[in-house]
Structure formats: structure tokens, C-alpha cells
Write a structure and sequence with these properties.
Blueprint lengths: L4 H8 L5 H21 L4 H20 L10 H24 L12 H6 L5 H23 L5 H12 L4 H8 L3 H22 L3
Helix pairs in contact: 1-2, 2-3, 2-6, 3-4, 6-9, 7-8, 7-9, 8-9
Length: 199
């Protein structure tokens, strides 16, 4: 079910569709949580922002505020996440008067988020977390599409970075098979992401 992002976003518009909401939450909650943490928000603030963004997105989708003709969903969701993160950082600054820094750039995240022209580092964090979210969901789907041995070889070699010979020995396969399995799983991952993100 929900084989594309378009299908999922349409399904989320139905407030009675709990399966669609669960899928939406599973995909985008970790993305938002990781993004807000990387901006320097503490656990409580990151959780609050994540929930706020998800609720705003759900309400906006149900009321047809998101228009695919005006841009990609990832950009639209980024705008919401950016605004909510900025509000949380401002509120925290008022509460604590303590500045935090964005690890990737050493810059003040509040200043970067407040400047629409100067948030390239923040936008780069978003794009990276988006790719991770898509990879995680793709892996969940692809695991059912490929053989167990293919998936295990891929995880051991491509994700856990074990040497080819070690993976081959552990799974009782030829080293060349590790490369073949990796290639098959990568192809399946790319295919899933392309289908899911298709406009």
C-alpha cells in the first residue's frame, strides 16, 4: 500500500486512514527528529517540534494547502520544519540565553535559520536527513523483495562495512556473490526511491 509519496499524501488527507498516518509518521518522524537534533535542539524541544511539524503537515494535507504544482513535498516540509525549529530556538534563547552551534558549520543555527539567504548549511542537513529517511524506508520495503541472503550480504558489506571475504565466509558464498548481491539490493533501493518520490 502507498507505493508512491503521492499516494501516501493523498491517503493522509483522509482523517480516518490510520494506516496512512502510521506510514507517514514512520517515514517522516525520524527525519524531523534527526534534523532538529542536528540543529542543536535538546530532546524535549526536538520532540515538540517533530510533533508540531507532523500535525501541521497532516492538517495542511487534509485541507489541501500543499500544492504539488508549486514544488516538491520535501521542500514544502522543510519550510515547515525550518519555521518551527526557528521558533523553538528563539523560545529557548529567551528561556536560557545560551547559544548553541550547528556542528557542521560552527555557526549559530538561530542566525542561519533566520536568514533565508544564508541557510545553505541547514538546507544541506535537511537534504542529508531526507536521504537517510528514504534509505531506511527503502530498506524496509526492499527486504521483502530480495532474498534473505542478498539482503544480509548487503547489510554486512555496504552498511556494516565488513570486508568482502569476511561476509563471504560468514554467509558461505563466493566473494564475487557479495558484489552481485550488493548490486541487486542497491538497484532495488534506487527503484523504490524513484517510485516513491515520483511526482
Amino acid at each position: 500500500m502507498h507505493t508512491t509519496q503521492t499516494n501516501l499524501l493523498a491517503a493522509v488527507r483522509d482523517s480516518q486512514n490510520s494506516l496512512a498516518w502510521d506510514t507517514f509518521y514512520r517515514i517522516y518522524s525520524p527525519l524531523l527528529s534527526n534534523f532538529t537534533h542536528r540543529l542543536g535542539l535538546n530532546d524535549a524541544d526536538a520532540d515538540d517540534v517533530t510533533q508540531e511539524v507532523l500535525l501541521i503537515a497532516q492538517r495542511s494535507l487534509q485541507q489541501h494547502h500543499y500544492d504539488p504544482a508549486k514544488g516538491r513535498f520535501r521542500s514544502w516540509l522543510y519550510g515547515i520544519a525550518r519555521r518551527q525549529s526557528l521558533a523553538a530556538l528563539r523560545a529557548r534563547r529567551r528561556r536560557t540565553r545560551v547559544q548553541s552551534v550547528l556542528p557542521e558549520s560552527g555557526a549559530d543555527p538561530l542566525q542561519q535559520l533566520a536568514d533565508p539567504k544564508g541557510d545553505e548549511a541547514v538546507s544541506a542537513v535537511w537534504r542529508e536527513e531526507w536521504r537517510y529517511a528514504m534509505l531506511n524506508e527503502a530498506l524496509r520495503h526492499v527486504r521483502c523483495e530480495v532474498s534473505e541472503k542478498s539482503f544480509e550480504a548487503f547489510c554486512l558489506y555496504a552498511i556494516d562495512h565488513h570486508p568482502v571475504q569476511q561476509v563471504a565466509n560468514q554467509l558461505g558464498i563466493a566473494p564475487s556473490s557479495v558484489y552481485v548481491y550488493k548490486s541487486r539490493v542497491l538497484e532495488a533501493i534506487r527503484g523504490w526511491v524513484a517510485r516513491f518520490e515520483e511526482p
